[in-house]
Structure formats: C-alpha cells, structure tokens
Amino acid sequence: MFKKTMVIVFAVLLSLSFLAGTVFATGQQGGPKGPMTPAAQIQAPSGKTLLSLPVDQVSPKTLRIAAIMVQNNPFGVAVLQGQNFAKQILADRNCIVDPLSVPDFDAQKWTSVIDNCIASGYNAICAFGVSDALQPVIKRAADAGILVYLFNSQLSEPRNHVAFYGQGGVDGGRQCGEALAKLMNNSGKYAIITGDFAAIGHEQRRTGAREVLDKIPGIKLVGEVMNNDKAEEAYNHAANFITANPDLKGIYVTAGGPSGAAKAVEDAGMKGKIFVVCHDVLAESAPYVGSGTISACLDQDPFNQGYQCVVDAFNQLMTGKKPPAETYYKGVMATPQTVKQLFPELF
Length: 347
Known about the structure:
By secondary structure, the chain is an alpha/beta fold.
C-alpha cells in the first residue's frame, strides 16, 4: 500500500514539474478564461464541501496567487486537489493560481520559495505554516504589499499573515491521545511516529497527545521517532517498535505515513492487538481504517486547507474585506464503524 502511495506522489511531482526554490511558470496567460460561472452554480467535487465561495466579480487586472505545499506525502496531494480546484474556478475571474511545491518541511527551502514569490510580484501567497522560522520572510512579503494566508499550522505572535486555516494542532493531538488511551484501556506501551520534530504542527500534535497520555499512570511511552512524512519510514519504525516491544499496544502517527505503520502491524500479525491512531482519512489510509487496522483517524479537511485560503485571498483582493483571522476545522474522528459512511467517496 505504501509503495503505491509513493508512486502517486511521484506522479504528482512530475506533473508539477517544479524544482524546490523555483517559482513555477504555469504558461497560463492573463485574462479571464471563458464566461464567469456564478458562485451559486459551482459544484464541489464528490465528497467535498466548499467552505468559501468566490465573489461574482472579474478582476480588471490579472491577479496572481501562489499556493505552496509539500508534495512528499498523500496529505500534500489532498491539499493540492483543493488548490487546483480553486485554480479552476478562479480562472474565469481573471485570477491565476500557481500551486508550488517544496520537497520537505525545511524552513530554509520554504523561505527561498516565498522570497521568489515576492520577487515575482504575486498578489497573495497561501502557504503551510511550517515553522516560526518563516516569520521574517512573511514580514518581507507583507511589507511588499503581498497578502499572506497560512494553513494547517498556526505560527506564534507577532503575526504578519492575514489569516489562518486548519485544525488546532494541540487540540488534534489531545483528541488522538484520548482515543488511544480509550482503545488501550488506560494501560500498556505505545510509541509515537511524528513527521518532523522541527515542524510546528507536528510538534503541537505530539505534545497535545502527551498532555493526555503522560497523565495516565498505566500507559508507558517506549519511543518517539521521525519519519519525514514517508510511509516506508513509518513502516520501518513501526516494525522496529513491534520487534523491540512484543507487548506494544498502541502507535500514534502525528502526520504523514500512517499507512506504512498500519501495514507493519498487519505484517507482524498484530491487527487487533496494536491500536493505530492517526490523522487524515485519505485514499491510502481509508482502507486500513475500514479494515480495522487503523482504529481511529482524525480528519482535518486537507481539501479546504488548500482551497479555502486561496478563495478568501481572491475575495479580499477584489473587495478589500478580510476573512476571519482564524478559521478552525473541528475535524471528524473516523473509526472502522463510521469511515465508509463519513467518506463514501474513498470506498
């Protein structure tokens, strides 16, 4: 399953044809693309809900919005779907949306891409809130008159971005910690596989889960490792935890790659004995939730994380009206009993 995931990600990377740190030229020319479709007639993709709709105005001058995300994991692919849908529906409003890819969560690489966007004169930038290390480049963008919107992970004060979209990281971690504690019946050993210790959102989830689990005397943490959001690394880490701890009862995956951990549990013959809790109901993880190998999966609406901020950026550029400073997605905790009803498009 995780090999298939990497094939999909690789295909997306090829289709983007974008090198890290380089602003991608789409070849899309200025001017609206065809007659404008009224917002009321825009149909969301199957299984999706559009949390914002564009104003019914065509910009007198071509607007350009950069939408930046990693494409090294299935979550990034899901965010890209939202970005591409925003690109599609804004084209007839004379707005060009450029989805740009960064290879990983290295803040220096993100800074380079955002600096290139500033130099290229984008009207707005939508980006994953990777780290507080982005604060200086975000201020440079704001000082240049570029509107900046962040998704997934909120940065610390002071803030120079217009708005944030996503699920509270600490709260999401707490929800997953509570789910894992209940599944483990408040006793036993567990491990944490996180994406990147330097990614602020991953750390918020990890610390949120530990706020819950560290207070339960019967639960013991046996290790925390980083998998760089990759399913094959999650597989190797999970297999090692299982080998070193034959009585392991739980694995919490904070970010990308939960399908790898689930496959390791299956290959070890421990399905139903080791509870996997993770985030994001995606094509790669949904089958494992449906089969019961993943016991709980907290979705955070990656489609709208990619889509909503882009549409709100267009609306502010057109009307001058700011969106709410923070838009939090409550999220849905899918279980083997509910996942097919909640996400029928994945089955």
